[in-house]
Structures are given as C-alpha cells and as structure tokens.
Amino acid sequence: MSEVVSYRREGEIGVISVNYPPVNALGQGVREGLRSCLREGLADDQAKALVVIGEGRTFPAGADIREFGKPPAGPALPDVINEYESSEKLVIAAIHGTALGGGLEVALGCDYRVALDSAKVGLPEVKLGLLPGAGGTQRLPRLVGAKAALDMIVGGNPVKAKNALQMGIVDDVVSGDLLEGALTYARKLVADNAPLRRIRDLDVQTEEADLFANYEKSIARKQRGFKAPFHCIKAVQAAVELPFEEGMKRERELFGELLVSSESAAQRHVFFAEREVAKVPGLPKDTPKRDVNLAAVIGAGTMGGGIAMNFANAGIPVKILEVKEEALEKGIAIIRKNYENTAKKGRLTQEQVEQRMALIQPTLSYDDLSDVDVVIEAVFENMDVKEAVFKELDRVCKPGAILATNTSTLDVNRIASFTKRPQDVIGMHFFSPANVMKLLENVRGEKTADDVIATVMDLSRRIGKVGVLVGVCHGFVGNRMLHKRQAEAVQLVNEGANPAQVDKVLFDLGFPMGPFAMSDLAGMDVGYRIREELRKENPENAPARNWTDELVENGRMGQKTQAGVFDYKEGDRTPVPSAEVDKIIAKFREDNGIATREVTDQEILERCMYVMVNEGAKILEEGIAARPLDVDVIWIYGYGFPVYRGGVLFWADQVGLKTIHDKVSQFHQETGDDVWKPAPLLEKLAKEGKGFYS
Ligand code: 3H9
C-alpha cells in the first residue's frame, strides 16, 4: 500500500487522495498508489462512484520531472490512466491548484472533471522539451477539437477553470470546499444514473484542411531550434488520423524521442536552475525580510519608466522622481503609451491601464521619498551623478529603506560608500526593456546586509523577475561576458570576417540576434561613450580604437539613426548589410596595416563562445557567480541564449571542456592576449575530464 495515495469512503462515494508535497507530482509511488487505490475503490461494493483529489496546494502538477533520465519504474503513467478510463464505476477528478501535464492527463482519463474556480489546467510539457506522453495529445483533441488542443499543447500555457469549462475540459466549476463540491457532483451523477464517459471513444473534430501544415508554418519563426513543438503537432495529427490505440503508440514514440533529446535535457535543466537561483548559498532560508509596500524609482527615462512599470504591474505603488518637470511628464506619457499599446493588443483592459497608472506617483522632490521602503536609482551612468543621488537618498530615506542602484558597470561598493548606511545598499540591474526582460542581476556589495539580499531576491519574484545574486566587478556577470564576446566579434571583422557573417553564426546557434544587430539595437554610442571615458581616465589600459568608433563618429549610432553596423529602413528593424560600413572597415584595416584572411564560421563560433566560457570560469573562481547555473540563468533571461541549449556553461559541457580548453590555450599562444589565458578552473575541469555540472 502506497503512503502517498490513500483510499477512503464518504458515504456512497470512494475518495482517492494524493498526498505527495509539494505539488503531488506523479512519481513512482504516486502512480503505484493511484493504481492500487483505484483497484480498492472498484472492489469496494459500497462505493458507487470514485473521486480523485489532491491534498495540499494542488491536483498533481505533472509527472515527476526528477525521474526523467533515470531507469523507468512501473507502473507507467499511461497504463495507470488506461485503468482509470476502463473503470466500470464513474470516476470524477476534483481539481484545484494546477492540474498540469500528467496531472491533467489523469483527469482526462476520468469520466468527469470538477474544478475549483481558482484552478488552472494545462499541458506545459512543451516547455520542458517534451510532449504530453500519457495520452494528452490523443484525449484532449477528442474533447476540445484539434485546433484548440494544438493551442494548448504547443503553446503550453494553462487555462483558467472558467475557460476550461467553456472549452469542455471540465464539466463543472465550484467555489468554496472542493471535496464537498465534487462529492455533491458525484452523488448527482449516481442519482441520475449518468453514463460512463470515456474520452477515447469520442470522435475527433477535424476542422480546416491543412491545419497541421499551416500550424507548423505559423510557429516556425518563434519556435526556431526547438524540437518539441513540432513533435506536439505530429502527435495531435496522429489523434486525428489514427485510431486511438495507434495514436497512443505514435505519441509514445514521439515522447521517447524527445525524452532523450539534448533539447529536453537542456530545458529541464533550465526549469530547475530557474528555481535554484532563488536559493542563495550561505543565506539561510529563514533570513528575515524587510516589508516592501512602497517603492520609488529615480529617473523617468526609458530604464526608470520600465522599472516603475514592474512595480505597478505587481500592484506595488511606486513614486518616480525626475529633477525637471518636462522630463517627468515625458516619462509618464511614455509609460501611459506603453500600457495603452498593450491594451490595444487586448492584453490589458482600459480599467487595468488606469489602475496601474494610478499606482505610479510622479514627483520632483526628494523629500517625497521619506516614506518609501525601496528606491532604485536609474540615472545617467556616471559616478558623480550617482554620488549626488545617493547622498540625497541617504538624507531623505527612512532608516531601513533599501537603496538600490541600477548601474550596469559601476562599482556598487563605491556607490554604497556615498551613504552612511552601506548595509542597505545593493545593485538591482534590470535589462532593457525593463518591463519586458525577465532577468534581474542583484549585486551584493561588500557590506550589503543579509536581510537586504533576502528582501531583494523575494522582491524580484514579486515583480515577475528571475533574480540572480552576483558580486561586484566590472559588468557583473552578464555584461562582463558580453563585452568579451563583443570585443572578439569586432576583432574577427578586423581580421577579415564581415559583420553579417559573424551575426549569422550566433543567430544560427540560437541567439535572437547576432552581436552587431544587438549593439545596433542597444545604441552604439553607449559603448563608445564608455570607451572614450576609459581612454580619458586611463589611456594606458584603455581599449584600442576600433572600426566601431569610426562608425559612431560618422553618425551611425544604430537603429535609432537607421544606421549602425547595419542599415535600417524606416519602421523596419531588419538589419541590412551596408556598403558604407564595408568602406569604413576597409579603410580602418588599411590605416592600421591589418592584412585580412578568410575567417571560417567555425572560428567565429569558437572565438565568440569560448571566450565567454573562459570568462564564465573566471567569474566562478572569483565567486562573482556562486554556481554555473547562476551564469546560465543570466544568459537565458538577460540575453536570449537559447533555452534548448541550457545556458552558456551547460552548452560548454556538451561541447566538452577539454575541446574548449585546448582551443582557448591555442588562441592564447597565438595572440598572447590575456583574455585567452585559460581560467584555472577550466584547466582543472578539462584535465579531470569533468564539466561545470559534473
Ligand atoms: C509530464 O507531466 C509528462 C507527462 O505528460 C508524461 C509522462 C509519461 N516534478 O515552481 P515551484 C518542484 S512533464 C518534480 O517553485 P510554484 C519544484 O522544483 C511535467 N518537481 O512552485 C520546486 O521544488 P523546490 C509537466 C516539481 O507554486 C517545488 O516543486 N508539468 C514538479 O511557483 C515548487 O515548485 C509541469 O511542467 C514536477 N512536475 O509553481 C509543471 N513541479 O521547492 C511544472 C514542481 O525543491 N511545475 N516541482 O525548488 C510548475 O509549473 C510549477 O512548479 C507549479 C507550481 C505551477 C506546479
């Protein structure tokens, strides 16, 4: 008898109850228990119908992902579900929380489904690089039609109980006590002599001709590189074209292919890594947190406005400060425009727009910030400006307020030293556009207090971000690695590659865009200004002039001037190779006596990627990132590294650290450049035949 699933009777209804915290995942014990309790219920003469329910926070939220990759242990979920569907007694699923993946598949094996009004149901396997492998691709289309099933299975997003009722996925929605509601429903079915209702016996609705081919075309661009969405389509197609049993067989084959795919391994890695980053090594789980009910942002520019929107979206009132009235009004108008655009797309109602705008309180006076719990500075990236801001914040903010800087490159310890409370100062580095990008690099200063770190990590989640804690260094984790890649990309062009070729290699690896399209998007003048600043401050160690400096000096700033490394047509973000840029590059090479050669795609890949892996290893050694998974999550959520490759360091493990180390050493010998000096950690792991994760 399984301990995680139990059977009892409530009057004439048998109740099968799953109790396997935290999410009642369908691990081996649960599968075993579901089967034995079903058999017990069927053998119980006094039970006229059976109800399956989850204890705690949810109906089963899917198969136990931790079991994937281990040797299979019976009973298999499809077999268990088959037994439920074949039951001679009515079985009713009682759903609360999130009935996801295998959980919903269990519910689809029941005759009827009752859901709590707050419940959600879905088949999110695609997000793990999988497909519903316990009949979901065969049963859901029979219930809701092929098109609606494709939307749910390929999209992977859950639907709310009310919508599930309209779609026919659930038969009743109740509020209050779910078990009571489900028992009442079951008793009524018994009283009405309701028939068994096996989904496998239903016909599939076939809709538009060419549905599957068209569907594949419609997702091709967005799902580039992913395998699972396309397998999902094939499985649903099998539901339409094949008898149930054969469709199940086809689903099984396709599921098996995905289960052993590198894409799914990477996506599952990301699932756990994303949750793991919230657990900071050395920071006890019960570290107290400060209350955050009122926030403030300094600066109403693009960044400040975007940051403020995150708080308003999460229902947290936020003050936004500018020194000049005109800039403040402009910033607020842009925020409103952003919300209205979202409303136009149907993703917000006008009422929600007004509610969010009402949470954003503009101010011109620092004295208005005396009551805020957290303030995030998002002003110009210049130490003198930051100093003035933090001195003001130190003067006006109440004791215990968290003072955060959104700096992307400056020294957080120095910024903290401008205040008399460095323990309350932390970096919160948002990525542009701040209201969209999910990453938040939280930068711990030397003196940042533990409760400030715990509060900011928690706040990250509250405002919908994935917060990763990092240490202080130039560029922190993400930009430090990015800058190395960018320098390499520029150098590759010096040597004979052309910008479009470099971009294509990284695009083909799965990045949403290449390094040069990215710098055009961000604005080439930003990097230029930083380089010029360094050249003034420290001419000996400053970066040498390169051809991108010439572009900026020729007015080519990127997309905003419709000319950067590439040309852009008005209203079109597609990068077009530029003859003018080719000339500037050729002249730069000539002026600097650089002889060109043919640069292969393989060399571009190795130099742009291995330089980041080497830097990532240095970042780990220095403790700037605590674990490889922190680096990987940063690259996925901050820079669009393809999820199906699991992050830069996960990818490196697949390539093999010895291969990478040997190349890094070779480049070091050839160039003498310090950037290629193999990180001792990389050297050690390569020698031991290990990876970052093994
Ligand atoms: C599937 O079902 C395949 C079948 O079709 C075919 C089989 C043959 N397994 O996210 P949270 C852990 S594939 C194992 O922080 P929330 C999670 O790691 C599966 N563990 O909570 C975390 O652990 P820890 C399809 C799981 O409230 C803890 O639970 N299902 C699983 O923000 C709490 O999670 C899915 O893809 C699991 N299935 O969100 C659903 N799920 O505390 C995946 C969670 O040690 N899960 N954990 O860090 C989710 O989307 C969210 O976890 C959920 C709760 C919405 C349920």
TrEMBL record:
InterPro entries linked: 3-OHacyl-CoA_DH_NAD-bd, 3HC_DH_C, 6-PGluconate_DH-like_C_sf, ClpP/crotonase-like_dom_sf, Enoyl-CoA_hyd/isom_CS, Enoyl-CoA_hydra/iso, NAD(P)-bd_dom_sf
Organism: Alcanivorax xiamenensis
PANTHER family named in the record: 3-HYDROXYACYL-COA DEHYROGENASE, PEROXISOMAL BIFUNCTIONAL ENZYME
Recorded superkingdom: Bacteria
Keyword tags: Fatty acid metabolism, Isomerase, Lipid degradation, Lipid metabolism, Lyase, Multifunctional enzyme, NAD, Oxidoreductase, Peroxisome
3-hydroxyacyl-CoA dehydrogenase C-terminal domain ranges (all copies): 475-568, 604-690
Catalytic activity field: a (3S)-3-hydroxyacyl-CoA + NAD(+) = a 3-oxoacyl-CoA + NADH + H(+)
Family, per entry: Belongs to the enoyl-CoA hydratase/isomerase family. In the N-terminal section; belongs to the enoyl-CoA hydratase/isomerase family.
Pathway assignment: Lipid metabolism; fatty acid beta-oxidation
Main location: other
Protein name listed in UniProt: NAD-binding 3-hydroxyacyl-CoA dehydrogenase
